[in-house]
Amino acid sequence: MMRGGLRVARLLGVEVAPWTGLGWKATPLKSDARFYAAYKAKEMTKENRRYHWIEPEAERLIARAYARHKTLVERDVAMPNGWRSFPPSISLKDLESEAIAKEYHYEPRTLGDRIAKKLVDGGEKLMELFFREKYDHHAVTLETVAAVPGVVGAAHRHLRSLRCMKRDHGWINPLQEEAENERMHLLIWMQHTKPTSFERAFVMCAQGVYVAAYSVLMFLSPRTAHRTVGYLEEAAHRAYTEYLEAVDEGAIPNVPAGDIAKAYYRLPDDATLRDVILHVRADECMHRDFNHHLGDLYDSNEQDEFPVKMDENASKDATTNSRPSLERDTA
């Protein structure tokens, strides 16, 4: 009788006991304080952290930086920049911190990981040879590629849920959100540069090839597909760090931020290109770690588990103040 009741509860997605395994893996009810405290203490140890390849401080700051994408944008003429509904930006000090600036790398563990790493390394070298120091053009082309996996991954999970007639457990929306975030990056950079006719032709051809190839890879090995995206985002982090260094060195003028960037990131009127690069780089950190996390779940056959959110408490802290601001260091 008890076993049948638990089975029904699982189908309905209802937590019925501390250790039913619903929600995150083996997550006890928060109402059971003693068991929940022990569970959280175990989860926070380095050996059991889902995002073990990055430091806890980086996890906290990345979660705060990305929290603004959790709500929809709404038009409001009474608000600065005419927009509302996004949490405030975090300070430049946090965005420039070593925790986010550090180049984290997920060490390949399987043949699929090594293949994914080699593919991305080869593509990164070709992009560097083609664009050299044209960082703005590089950013535009990079975002046209980076916006594809989220759509393909979401479609794969959606069709899998229909085909298997079971729940997806919350992965479809984050993948769609990832694709939308990357598309917004493209629109932001289009206000700072215009791709050449050759670059546009290259993107049109590359998109068809990439969508087809990534779709096949997702069908054959979702783990390798998400690992490839994780390594692609590692390359994006390096590219934006180089872009930032070029601005700091004066090789690229630190012009005012575009209107789309100000609205999307809720930046003040005096925001600059440098501020935008810092925010975009933080977004790429989130995509990097999210895809490595999903790749790990496929590796351990836990792809039907709920996503483990990065430092959920930090994300909540970022939404407590609705006033748009961008703290600047005075030192």
TrEMBL record:
Cofactor descriptive note: Binds 2 iron ions per subunit.
UniProt-annotated location(s): Membrane
Coiled coil: none
Single Gene Ontology MF annotation: alternative oxidase activity
Keyword Membrane: yes
Subunit structure: Homodimer; disulfide-linked.
Keyword Transport: yes
Enzyme Commission code: 1.10.3.11
Keywords: Electron transport, Iron, Membrane, Metal-binding, Oxidoreductase, Respiratory chain, Transmembrane, Transmembrane helix, Transport
Basic and acidic residues: bias regions: 306-315
Cofactor: Fe cation
Region (Disordered): 304-331
GO biological process: alternative respiration
Reaction catalysis annotation: 2 a ubiquinol + O2 = 2 a ubiquinone + 2 H2O
Group of enzyme by EC: oxidoreductase
One annotated Gene Ontology cellular component of this protein: mitochondrion
Family stated for the protein in its record: Belongs to the alternative oxidase family.
A matching Pfam family: AOX
Name of the protein in its database record: Ubiquinol oxidase
